[in-house]
Amino acid sequence: MLNLIFIVILSYLVGSIPTSIILSKLVKGIDIRNYGSGNAGGSNVFRVLGWKWGVLTIIFDALKGAVAVIVVARLYLDNFPFHNITPFDDFTLVQIICGVSAVLGHVWTVFAGFRGGKGIATGLGVLITITTLDMAIALGVFVLVVTLSRYISLGSLIAAISVPLILIVRENIFGVNIPGYHTILPFSILLALLVIFTHRANIDRLLKGNERKISFVKKKSS
Fold first, then answer.
1. What's the whole-model pTM score?
2. What is the pLDDT of residue 17?
3. Which residues, given as ranges, of the chain have pLDDT below 70?
4. How far apart are alpha carbons 156 and 165 in whole angstroms?
5. Across 41-164, where does the E strand assignment appear?
6. Which of 115, 120, 161, 177 has the greatest number of CB atoms lying within 10 Å of its CB?
7. Residues 77, 56: Cα–Cα separation, whole Å
């Protein structure tokens, strides 16, 4: 049990690394939370520092989730402290637990006053290691929505919601046998609900029509 607690805490700490805050201070000497939407995530870096730094932030945030699932989970050496009723083996379940811990660390980072990002990129890194094809489709949905609407928040929301829908369609309509479907589905639903919760302010702005759009054209300096 102590070993499980250890890797949960370690995964949380990995997820807590405030990538956007570190990059914004290195690049422009600012705290990204004092600019744009005030969020410590890749989308706000995209708005404030430009798409290159935004993409880099998203990649690093996704890597945090992947590291928790691929690396930290392997530090678990004990037998499971409770009965595993899921269709996954014990190690895969440990990976999911580590992934959730990393996402929570990203949203409520201990290194920045528990004011982190919204969990999208880190959740992406977690899910893409567990259900790669479904996440690839969801990523395509994200790119399409952002390209058409220029709202990163809308793309993030629709992509997060699309993951469980893609799983349901592939399993029940196309008859694809997805390993661990009945565990991955509720896990993806919980992550989607977390994304909706962390984007509640964005949803309000979207409904009111005053959410900020992104620009793919670099602004000329005066």
1. 0.79
2. 97
3. 86-87, 216-222
4. 15
5. none
6. 120
7. 33
